[in-house]
Amino acid sequence: MSDPQTDVEYNVRNTVSPELFDEIIAEYLARSESAVRGLRGFTDIYYDPHSQQKLDVWGTSDEPRPVFVAIHGGYWRALSRHHTAFMARALDSEGIATVTVDYGLAPETPLEEIVRQVRAAVAWVYHHGADHGLDPDRIVVGGSSAGGHLTGTLMVPGWQQPLGLPENVVRGAMPISGLFDLRPLVDSFANEWLGLDIERARALSPLLLADGPGPTAVIAVADRDGAGFRTQTKRFHDAWAEHSACTLLVVPDRNHYDIFLDLADPTTTLNRALVRMIDGLAERHSAARALP
Ranges for the BD-FAE-like domain (predicted)? Predict the structure, then answer.
């Protein structure tokens, strides 16, 4: 049995009408298809031999580019990389490549395996990105909702070395309207497909693993988001700010679903924050290369 109050706090489908939800999800796909049409890149790359999951690379050029690894949401059980490329053309115009990532979906895929897969995707970018127009020293990750949680699992320490990665492989991060402490979900409707107990939820919670320096982050949430998502975003920002540079961004006039689309619009605060973060990495990268 789920807890009714927890269900209210975390059931963001109830924060928008069914018609608006369907409209926004359709817009994810339509705008993604439009954004990548004619854009230079590589598609249908198997990044993980074990799971046979794929990624796409968009917005490449003749010189290695910083890369934004975009991770889709869908409460870990829906959507795909094809819904998550809408920012690719806007970022291409800024000299930034985009990688969109698929992962196995719950309940068929346990959450531990989903986390392993997105980490494997980052490992692919680091080890093979240079052959696909990507700069492995300028990797930024981001995603919305479940993708925000998965972004958090890429920010924390402790997973990089077994994959042959430096501790700072992720240089910047933008979790958007994510969940960072999964323990409340054990008593929620979402556990129907997650099947978590408290111990597993604790082990999969970035908020509880944020115990050392990590990447620069912009931690964002919609001001019309669900109460649980707003609270968790603030808590994660406060925990991350104890040891790493980060900014809390509450985006006005946005809900849990349409906030993500702001990354496709260069006039929005969210897009500008991402570009500034990546440009800052580029400046530091250029300065480091100039040292004798």
Answer: 61-151
